[in-house]
Write a structure and sequence with these properties.
Layout: H1 2-36, E1 43-52, E2 58-69, E3 73-75, H2 77-87, H3 90-110, H4 114-117, E4 121-125, H5 128-131, H6 136-146, E5 156-161, H7 170-181, E6 185-191, H8 200-203, E7 208-211, H9 213-216, H10 223-238, E8 242-245, H11 251-259, E9 264-265, H12 276-286
Parallel strand pairs: 2-4, 4-5, 5-6, 6-7, 7-8, 8-9
Antiparallel strand pairs: 1-2, 1-9, 2-3
The structure holds ligand C2E and magnesium ion (3 copies).
One magnesium ion binds at residues 190, 212-213, 246.
Subcellular location: Cell membrane
Domain EAL: 24-287
Protein name: Putative signaling protein
Length: 293
């Protein structure tokens, strides 16, 4: 009977693995096709507000890619980004994201609420793999041209995870320095979830850390999360880095972060990632225009 059960189980896993492989292949082909005509293929960007520590003033936006496939429905980036990385077209996807985000910010700056966008930062997520591809700096330069500014201050920030630091070599440091020379600021995303040593904070031109949502979720009540967030803030500030907290959902989290001098906050407490139209509506409703002068 045990043998029987074992065999059935094997068949079960085999079938589900086959189904998963089939879905992967379908997604991969669909994504490849979508990249030929991104708007038609269901790709878009959503923009999530980042606010200053007081949670009142809009400071910047993070662009987050969205994919709604006509037949397969909404696919989350946590599913299709790794797929694009493994299938070798992450740089095509990343290039589209970067250009679309920069063109959108340029359009906003030229539009009716332009003054409200003038000083905003625009954060774009970049896969560690993209950094190591030849021509990456040139692609960033081309995207900056869409923003109408090839050197700073244009507000472009790139968010990259600690995965980047597993491959630290002279070439990578050279790439990061070239980006910095273009006025691009580098943020380390999901800080604290990777495996790298802290020494890179000294060696690399990173200017900002983003505390991962998993730690923010635990404050103020979980003593370990509270300790990690406090230590991150204090270390970052001592090193001259600014800190953003992601995934802020409650007033208690906000109060804790403010008390410990976090520089900026982002999360559902303030706003979700919004379509360009919804972002304009949100700005009209929630934000006080900056006082002139
Ligand atoms: P991330 O860069 O750490 O982005 C934060 C994620 O948390 C986003 O999920 C965002 O929608 C979500 N989020 C924001 N505020 C809250 C909150 O208060 N509570 C909760 N529970 N979630 C919140 P999303 O959009 O599904 O993106 C997931 C990840 O996919 C991103 O994590 C990033 O690593 C990756 N990703 C998204 N867009 C891009 C892109 O254009 N390029 C690349 N390479 N990766 C991207
Ligand atoms: Mg991010
Ligand atoms: Mg993050
Ligand atoms: Mg995250």
């Amino acid at each position: 009977a045990a043998k029987e059960a074992g065999r059935n189980q094997w068949c079960f896993f085999d079938a589900s693995m086959q189904a998963e492989a089939a879905r992967r292949l379908a997604l991969e082909n669909a994504l490849r096709a979508a990249l030929d005509d991104p708007a038609d293929g269901g790709l878009s960007l959503a923009y999530q507000p980042q606010l200053d520590a007081s949670g009142t003033e809009l400071r910047g936006l993070e662009a987050l890619v969205r994919w709604y496939h006509p037949a397969l429905g909404a696919i989350p980036p946590s599913e299709f980004i790794p797929l694009a990385e493994e299938s070798g077209f992450i740089d095509r996807l990343g290039d589209w994201v970067l250009r679309t985000a920069c063109a959108q910010l340029a359009a906003w700056r030229a539009g009716p609420l332009g003054a409200r966008f003038a000083a905003l930062t625009l954060a774009v997520n970049v896969s560690p793999i993209e950094f190591t591809r030849p021509g990456f700096v040139e692609r960033v330069r081309a995207a900056l041209a869409l923003l109408g500014a090839e050197t700073g201050p244009h507000g472009l920030e790139l968010e990259v995870t600690e995965g980047l630091l597993l491959q630290t070599d002279d070439e990578l440091i050279d790439t990061l320095n070239q980006l910095t020379a273009l006025g691009v600021r580098l943020t380390l995303d999901d800080f604290g979830t990777g495996y790298s040593s802290l020494g890179y904070l000294k060696r690399l031109p990173i200017t900002q850390l983003k505390i991962d949502r998993s730690f923010v979720a635990g404050v103020p009540n979980d003593p370990d999360d509270a300790a990690i967030v406090r230590a991150t803030l204090s270390m970052a500030h001592d090193l001259g880095l600014s800190v953003v907290a992601e995934g802020v959902e409650t007033a208690a989290q906000r109060d804790f972060l403010r008390r410990h001098e976090c520089d900026a906050v982002q999360g559902w407490l303030y706003a979700r990632a919004l379509t360009p139209d919804d972002l304009l509506a949100w700005l009209r409703e929630h934000q006080v225009p900056p006082t002139p002068g």
